[in-house]
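Q: What would this complex look like in 3D?
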Amino acid sequence: MDEALRTQVLEYDNVSSSMKETVDAVVIGTGCGGAVMAKELAKAGKSVLMLERGGFYLPQRGELDQREDDMFARIDGGRGLHTSTNGQAALTYGNCVGGASVHYWADTWRTPKDRLDKWASQFGVEGHSLEELTPHFERIEAALNSHPAAEHRRNAMNRLFVAGAEKAGMQWEPVVQSRDERCIDSGYCMQGCAYDGKQSQLVTHIPEGLRAGVRIFADCEVEQILLENGRAVGVAARFLDRRTGKPSGHALEVRANAVIVSAGGFNSAPLLMRSKIPDPSGQLGKNLQFNPCPQLFGLFEQDVVMWRGIPAAVGTMEYRLHRFDGGRYVEGGYLLHPNQLPPATLAALLPGFGKAHQQLMENAHRIGSCIAWIDDTHTGSVSLDDDGEPLWQWTLRGQDELTVRDALKKQALVLLHAGAKEVIVPDPKGTRISDLHELSKLDTVDLRPGSMMFACPHPAGMCRMGKDPATSVVDANNEVHAVRGLYVCDPSVFPTAVSVDPSETIMAFSSLAAERLLARWT
Amino acid sequence: MASSPHAGGNPLSRRRFLKVGGVVGVAVAGGAWLAMRGGGDEHYRSLCPGASPVVLSQKELGVLAAFCDRVCPAPSATQPGPRVVRVAERIDRELSFHTNTMRSDVKAALFVLEHGGWLHLSTTRFTRLSPDAQDAALTRMGIDGNEIERQVFSNLKLLALFFYYCDERTWKAIHYEGPFAARKAPEADSRVGEAAHG
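A: Here is my prediction, written as structure tokens for the whole assembly.
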């Protein structure tokens, strides 16, 4: 990002007093949902102010330094340590200018038609058919340079995945990636790209928005949405001191015609709850789904070094949908991919402790992994603690547990067929599988809270969209049913999880919402 | 976003901890009172000498340091131990950037770790056990323990191992060449000692 654009981003060390602003639109959050909305409104001539709770970090300033701890602290929500109340779900979300796109893997998927049809038929989501969204997908893919990675750029773990899947008789396919020629296959996607090669919001829609006149206040936490006569009229916020994460003592009040909440799938609902937004549906903060991710590890004879190269350049869609026989679950309900974990994160997830764990880590470069994104059917919820901070409740159960076990078996199949000497299960016992005949161990492996942790990177549902105000929080224009002038533009509005990476769906929904908001602007 | 799982975890919610307070409280409170009679600040200060915790108490830091000793690699010619890396102090400082709920959860977890033996009719605190007995206690907690014990063990373990292996001095032993970029410490840096300078 060039120097001139950077000056449009206000950071904590440039705030010396409380402030008041009046704009056409205030956008809370700078991830995929907020960035697209802000850019579209600004290009139509509206004055737009974006507020971001997290900091503003750039490779040009050396701030994307590829250290796991530093980057969790900089770009991830809860500094990478937020979980569900039972510790079973690790909540993966962004907290920086660019949001979760700064740490995402750059895999890019259009919303499957069956999912859009389900949202329309079961939840009354109108005006979001595949035909209506396709022009938005096309624009987004052009802006993000989305295309499958060339074969020669697949790292060892991706090649092992292909070999294992083929031997196991599974389909596999290249996964569309949003990268440009600056990507050097470093493997530090999750830590924020230090080369601007990954096409996150930081290098795409945010600069485009800034060029159109958007301003951004980083280190700025919205406390309340302001309501007058049942209409949203602005926000009350406070600046944070990035050195402590605590309020700096300077406040911000913004008055706006449109208040757009894009704080992310985990945090938009808590903001609405804290602001006491009327919720006649009773659905606000409920219906949380987030693609819980079970993963297995394989110990290979040869080096894998899974922390280098492009993650998830390939995968299989074969099991995306659940399959039933006479109402009984048979298999499927997940995407399957090669995994990528940097060393300290790998260490935190491997089973055992002390000497046994140390011996595993001495072979960390020979450990490969597969990961599955479960298309969850059960839901969680959020509440607020005494300080107004969110508490997310979720427990793996029912059909989702069966789906996890099936996904673990398919991962073990791939790893063993790829040549793993043994498969390492990250359960408390550190179960090992060294033969295809031992897959049945996964039928009884301990999945209770405190036993296996699931990364949960794709939240949806807590401000769900629908036609009926009695059963949904926002309408098909993303406007909150009960409060005019208040919009939610992020994955919170999806009635369920998307079943693929949701970033392109988030952007497309926001692009469509912006188009419709501008058409109705008075 | 498709993104990998990450380390850490809030070991158990304050609400959940209070909910099981009936069980843990009855068993632990009496036992803890008895157990704490025989050892106070001096014992815990000796477990992490010279440290000045910012969120945890001296006792909590001592318990955490004892836990890290068993979970992280022992010091050797090729690998630093958790004392050199100052894992417990690192976690303490990290907590200063988190919510009250997170802090009280970790404090509650350390209490259960130190005094939870009472649930199994053991009168000896974790930090008074021999190393072998500590390993046995951790194995029991992690595999056979109730939900709270499993959460205490697994989430403290996540924190300990994640922050241990974030230290550059541990990378050679695991064949990790490290990042391509130079370190630039974040404004809210929780590293301590030598690690803080990257």
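A: To summarize the key features: Residues 1-27 of chain B have pLDDT under 50 and may be disordered. Chain B touches chain A through 71 residues (CB under 8 Å).
Q: Very helpful, thank you.
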